[in-house]
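# step 3/5: fold
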Amino acid sequence: MGVIETLLQILGSLGLFIYGMKVMSDGIQKAAGEKLQKTLGLMTKNRVSALFTGLGVTTVVQSSSATTVMVVSFVSAGMLTLVQAVGVIMGANIGTTVTGWIVAIFGFKMKIAAMALPAIGLGLPLLFIKKLKKENFGECLIGFGLLFLGLSYLKDSMPDIQSNPEILEMVKVFSGSGILSHLAFVVIGAVMTVVVQSSSATVAITQTMAFQGWIDFPSAAAIVLGENIGTTITAQLASIGTPLDARRAAMAHTMFNVFGVIWVTTVFPLFIRMVDSMIPGTLFGSTMDTTFTGGAAVFHSYLGPVTDGVTLATGIALFHTIFNVANTFVMIWFVPQFTYIVMKLVRGKREPVEDGVYRLKFMTASLQDTPEMNIAQARKEVQKMAGVVEEMFTRFSEIMHNRETDFEDDVKLFAKKEELTDQMQSEISRFLGECSRYNLSDNSASDVAALIRITDELESIADSCYRLILLAKKRSDKKYEYAKGVVEETRPYTDLVREFLALINKHLGSSMTQSELDRAAAMERRIDEYRNAFKKAARKRIEHGASVRGEILFIDKLQQMEHIGDFAFNIARALALMNHER
């Protein structure tokens, strides 16, 4: 077999492996659905819950890069503080080690085709028979099968050491130079991960190389250390052009992994010996010099691997896990200090959203997309938008009863917030449009459509609030007078509208049940009844000689508040739709 043909087979096998991992991850995300989004809410509690959230999410999506990219975007959106982000990153590093164990346990100890093909065979009916409503599980099984099929091809396509001793000569070029050899393998691991864009995949490649005898355990361990550095590049690239704290979150990921590699390097011989003591059998052999040579021990013969390939693959998975667990255990006690160092390294000024142009950056981690987490971020942004709208109406209800208000300042403030909501609607809708391009579950696709509808209604509420403040200013400028006691009589009306907006805002973070929707419908009917009663009273006052222009302006205010009630009820119906069949 020629070199080019071998290389193409390796690349094709790797492609099948990565594609299978992506399909399996997508299926798990869709099956997890709203539960995955709710899990993200645990991030905001403390560093320990943040750690376990990062661990859980990364176990599902099988990519620390994907989780960290989402963390960067969450920090950018204000959903996470930098301290919480560091906790999630620590958990993500542990979660990404699961793939190595799957490969070690199933990929090398069993006949892979015996699992891969039946998994695909079981998954196809689930995927295509829509009545079963198990498409997501079918996708998981197919992805699982493709992943191990790719691994099987990867094992078979990689030339073995006995038939290709020149490979050993190539490896020896990097061996036997002490700390320089160790650093060389670390660099190789980092470069591999930057190219492949998945540390899970590069760990599997490393396990396969060790299984076939290309590299010994210390060399593989050094490569794994490098892979932990290379996986941080994705988040660094994603953070370009993001707010200050998002760039700091990306730097925290890099510093955390680099720090871990540095301190493990100082105790590398002890560390790999500790891993060896935890594995039945040995990861070393008598033909190998296991003194500290920078992680690359030297073969003294061309007899192939010094120990069983399965044991090596398991040892690499164990090393990867222990490294990340130990690094997390060391660092979790110093998160505030670590955060302080990151803040000093990455300096800059924060720009408040209101003082600049609103931007919502859609981030993706290349090979491993996380649409469920993107939807969770979009939902948080919609909550922010609802908060702006609620503030606008609350401020209007306060000044409606105060003729001494400086309307010039209020009109400028409302104009600024109305422009902000316009930008938020545009950016969030564009962001959700990007989400919809991915292969979403039916529930997630429904959520995207509902959120787009909600942002449109919120923008309409903001428009009505802006018109209300303009009407209030017009009344002040023209010195229109209302009949005595009329403004006080409308207080229950404005209070009801404000209560309705608060109800909507409360449920944007969760969902709305049928009973809650019924309550919203009742509030909307009461708003209509208030509007009709006040309009009728205004017409009677006109008939009895009240100021026509003043009463017409008063009716316009009533009408705008009734519109807000309609928009709020549309939001309630969209929220109830998001709760459908959950």
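# step 4/5: annotate
The radius of gyration is 30 Å.
# step 5/5: archive (pending)
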